[in-house]
């Protein structure tokens, strides 16, 4: 990043220096200025190419950072889905733990209740046993008393009718009481047996409840362990997501920075183009000055430019012919004259000519006779030819693959001057033609289709 800033600073500084130079260009043009402008232009072109490369690199960085960001966001989606599952799992486990706790409590209450029932039943059984013992004791006492009375009072009873009757009555009564005692004892015994059974069953139920409670408690502990693990997993997942979120924020900040860098490079690019246009205008002026000076020096022998058609092709009222040997329906215009968004630099610029797609190597012919004033590589136009036809009329042919004439050479109308190509700022083999009146700057261009060139 530091390296980039250092470079950008030096690029901007050199851009400022060139602005200074461009101001100096406004002084009258000297013949040797041509070389100076060419050097300036070449230097600017190098700067621009470097900036283009930097911009491309930075845009590639943006694109790869964006790809990484997209991947991070994708991963985030997966992690969030995973988190949702983990949250659901933790919630389900919490509910199950709560259920298990309730069950353990319920079982514990049942155990307590059963214990109490066992105690109560035991008490009842003890009471019945006490009653059995008491009734048995009473019966024993009665039997003993009856026997004693029987053995001592028997003769006395025989002689006393009343006594005998009383004895018999008492004996009868005794038998009835004894029978009742026996019955009572039987009932008590049966009750005690029943209670003992009940107690046994209750103890068995209590034991099984205790086992059930212990099992429920174990299950609860297992669930709690599982819940703890699930909560730990969830915490880890959240930490992972926080980390990922941080990575995403970092990546977004990086992309923002890279985009800022790209914007700075694009600005520098636009500035270079503007400066090159300014230098180019001065250069063209200087070339024209140089040419006029040479023309004046060799005025008597210089052949007069001919605008009258030298071929049998139809010429426009300006004396120009179509520069390709193709007829109607054998070509098309991919881009006309006018303002348009530059396809490469993405800035609004005047498209100062007409684009005709043609296969590389197709010959291009001079639209009229004249002196070649430009035949070399130029920024944007690639390999390019400019012909001065005299009377302030010029034609330009751009994006060639091969130039066939040299600067200073006089060419005839319909003379082969170059081959179609894809050089300079071009995205496919095509011929770019321009018609210029009054000078060879962009502002001198006219729409070739407005009567200047006879398009078949
Ligand atoms: Zn063009």
The radius of gyration computed from the alpha-carbon positions, rounded to a whole number of angstroms, is 59 Å
- DSSP summary: helix tally: 3
**How can the largest sheet be summarized?**
9 strands, antiparallel
The shape, in one word, is: rod-shaped
Query: Would you tell me the structural class of the helices and strands?
Result: alpha+beta
Number of strands: 11
Strand content: 5-15%
Q: Which H/E pattern describes the elements?
A: HHHEEEEEEEEEEE
Quote the distance from N terminus to C terminus: 56 Å
CATH class of the largest domain: Mainly Alpha
Poorly predicted ranges: 1-29, 301-310
Helix content percent band: 55-70%
How does CATH name the architecture of the largest domain? Orthogonal Bundle
Instruction: Give the integer mean of the pLDDT values.
Output: 84
Short account of what is shown:
This protein has 456 residues and is an alpha+beta fold. It contains three helices and eleven strands, in the order αααβββββββββββ. Zinc ion binds next to loops.
